[in-house]
Amino acid sequence: MAEITAALIKDLRERTGAGMADCKKALVETDGDTEKAGEFLRKKGLAAAAKKAGRIAAEGLVGSYIHNGRVGVLLEINCETDFVARGDEFKTFVKDIAMHIAGASPTPLYVSSEEISAEVLEKEKALLTAKAIEQGKKPEILGKIIDGQVAKWKKDICLLDQIWVRDPDGKKTIQALLTDLVAKIGENIKIRRFARWELGEGLEKRKDDFAAEVAKQAGL
Length: 220
Prior knowledge:
The protein is of the alpha+beta class. The chain has 9 helices and 3 strands. It is globular.
């Protein structure tokens, strides 16, 4: 068995945010393999999160973020106790999610796919089907193509399925980030709702006719 050094434990703790004892146990279980140990901790976090998912989360914070006066985000994230809501880790999480919503591309429209109405889903399917037919896709594979495109579309616009914009490896989803926090703090935490505004969004932009402006100034 590989030697479980303090340096290995420290490295795993910095990467995952898990406690020292949990990191040591994970390394022992995986014979010192930090990658497998990280996966071990992630699975443990998923199990812990699943157990807490049914617990009432009515406390929390309403957070906000404004980027350069042009993009604004308001969101509500819930937890079980006011004690956790006042903690630095929870506040940091709220801020991180607000910043993600402001800067993510594509822009998230829903927290999760469960919020997408049947009407919106059918409309998207119809658009994708029409496009696929126009591209000459064979009828026998059309259903599979549309299913794949719809699944990708959902991931693109649902916050929990998006890749966290600050993840250096470009792999961690918002759901994984949330699960890690649940496992670390020990409370049920839910991203309940959010709204995002962009300056001038939905307004008709002014289009100057340069030739007409020159003609007007010239008295023509």
